Amino acid sequence: MNMPRVTLEVLQAIRRSRKPVSKAELVRLTNYSLATITEHTEILLRNHLALESDRGPSTGGRKPQLLSFNAEAGYIAAIDLESTHAGVGITDLNCNILISESSNDIDVAAGPAAVLEQIKDLVLALLRNKGIERSQVKGIGMGLPGPVEYSRGLPASLSIMPGWDRYPIREFWAQHFECPLYVDNNVHTMALGEQMLEQDSKVDNLIFLKIGNGIGAGIICNGHIYRGSTECAGNVGHINIGHDFLCYCGNRGCLEALAGGRAIAARAEQMARDGQSELLAAILAEKKKLTLADVRKAVEESDPVAVELMREGGTAIGNVLASLVNFFNPALVLIGGGVSQVGDVLLASIRQAVYQRSLPLTTRNLSIQHSLLGEQAGIVGAAVLTFNEIMHMPFVNRELTFTYK
Amino acid sequence: MNMPRVTLEVLQAIRRSRKPVSKAELVRLTNYSLATITEHTEILLRNHLALESDRGPSTGGRKPQLLSFNAEAGYIAAIDLESTHAGVGITDLNCNILISESSNDIDVAAGPAAVLEQIKDLVLALLRNKGIERSQVKGIGMGLPGPVEYSRGLPASLSIMPGWDRYPIREFWAQHFECPLYVDNNVHTMALGEQMLEQDSKVDNLIFLKIGNGIGAGIICNGHIYRGSTECAGNVGHINIGHDFLCYCGNRGCLEALAGGRAIAARAEQMARDGQSELLAAILAEKKKLTLADVRKAVEESDPVAVELMREGGTAIGNVLASLVNFFNPALVLIGGGVSQVGDVLLASIRQAVYQRSLPLTTRNLSIQHSLLGEQAGIVGAAVLTFNEIMHMPFVNRELTFTYK
């Protein structure tokens, strides 16, 4: 049977409070009666999901029992896969990273079998390092750089990841771990990670915009990740902005064909060849090919051509975002991904375009910021995704320390 | 106290099933135990919200008691106000219209006091006609043609409705009725009305696009109306599409300044003056001013200039919608409002643009259709809004036949 909804609500109330709480406080937080709270906290204690803390200050009689969430009742393996690198972390059930490592010798083009083997070895090494048994891992979360059919855990149409299309990633992990695996587009996991940080400010509607080689949006709507009717919401990289560059999707005019990392590097290289920037030409002569890192270096040295490229990208992104802001009316827009780290001109241009093109009523309380978690967003988010799921799973026939009793 | 959540869930299960259900069926529909179902159906029967129907077929023992929703336990007054006309209806609690009337001598520019008085008289006349007492009206729902601060029931920044800004509409109705009043942007109410019709097809994510003088979107997200963080989501009429026409909002380039009804009429008039269409010029000579109705007439007579105007509007709307579809990934887009009724060329152009500019993955299951309810969407939707709200209200200190006992 599932963990009863009331038990789950009480557990979430204990977890969210972040400090030990009394049953009286839980009554206030949940609106359940003291008898109900007592019944369900006992279930949680019996299943080691809650712990009794030191007793709190007395308000007359016996000091009240204080309860806290047992974040070490299990662990989560969280994976953030990008096309050329991967971040892997082990977190507790509060999604705090206990240990993590980043690997730069990943090449998704090597195909899923080889890459998953590499990542599994990384996970096992981290577990050994922290003295955590495989059986203590209660869930594995994995973010991929492209669309995923979330309900079935299958990658979908990953043009930049040949060989991954519909690859049975769950089956791979099932050979090595007995816990469930969740796979999602890493724009979604990142949005979940950022949202966790925003819990106290009660931001229910946010857009996380990842600007890497591709451009995608993770949408938090009424407090929950929003995936859309065929699970491909947030696919903003192919919104047509009316230019003539060909995109790998086959269309011309896609946002990411102008403002994505690979597009910016390609345009910088063209401008270097055309002799428009001495600095970029010098780097190109040395390296034979320009990358986003080279553009970043040129921006840091105030090369006007590189700065203008970033400004142009920011304006294009900002114009698209202005439409989405008018439509979705979020309280917060967070900008992340590799391109967002290339100086401040991108964010400034995005802000300028959004505030110019959106209705004042819509942007009155809108905040547009850099990602709060930065490079950790993907790992934290994969853990948040996993935690949210395992808390709603059936509680029998799984080897969990907190098998529901 | 509020109606307990479980009672409400049982009530919704009875109501949604649309035909009499047995307690055994309710157990299956809600996952509650038979004891729980019995407890709560008794509450509903006592409060006249459920009725006992004829007993169903026996499966061996005594024939089971069948329950149905008492849609006439109360009535809803539903109002759809536009800038030049209003629709008013009385519905039962299933939001079926029992009687309605449309008034064309409304002028919102006359100010809220006069207009509300006119509408109130209409409501009272309809009630008299059906022999319904004021006290039997359990809620009033009202849609306005512009942004509304929903939680406070106050119109916000209605540039096309001078004098309405923050007018206390609730206080007006409280002088005449003892039931609660809900005010919302009528794009939202229309979306709710359409969604009710779609209940069986389980469309959880839809965009209702109202193309009148203004252009706005009502968003149903995960089955619920989505209002955004400052309650102005769906404000798509002012999305910048890069033209030079001045919009009443003060910006240039707004979608509705090209594709809204007033804009189309103004452009048709200009083209008539410029001698581009003999038909339009003839109508203008006769009438001194062109309206959308005149453009409609010209489209019906296959005037190429008028058809081209509608095609241009449809393409502009479709291009914006393509971006929103990539972002939001809805299952259904419904097109309503006065402009949508001007022939089929608009819908065809919208579809063409969306399917051309959105990702195939996103449009695989997307359907783009004319509004199902047509001119009744606003009235039905105002009733749906009201029903949803009163079912969640505290049940004391209100004169309801179903005061919670």
TrEMBL record, chains A, B:
Q: Does the keyword Protease apply?
A: no
- Please explain the role this protein plays, according to its UniProt record: Transcriptional repressor of xylose-utilizing enzymes.
* Name used for this protein in its record: ROK family protein
Q: Which domain of life is it from?
A: Bacteria
The reply to whether Oxidoreductase figures as a keyword in the UniProt entry is no
What the entry lists under InterPro entries is as follows:
ATPase_NBD, ROK, ROK_cs, WH-like_DNA-bd_sf, WH_DNA-bd_sf
Per the UniProt entry, what are the Gene Ontology biological process annotations, in alphabetical order? D-xylose metabolic process
Q: What is the lineage of its organism?
A: Bacteria, Bacillati, Bacillota, Bacilli, Bacillales
Q: Which SUPFAM superfamilies match?
A: Actin-like ATPase domain (SSF53067), Winged helix' DNA-binding domain (SSF46785)
Organism this protein belongs to = Paenibacillus validus
Q: Which family does it belong to?
A: Belongs to the ROK (NagC/XylR) family.
Sorted alphabetically, the keyword list is: Carbohydrate metabolism, Xylose metabolism
What Pfam families has UniProt attached to this entry? ROK
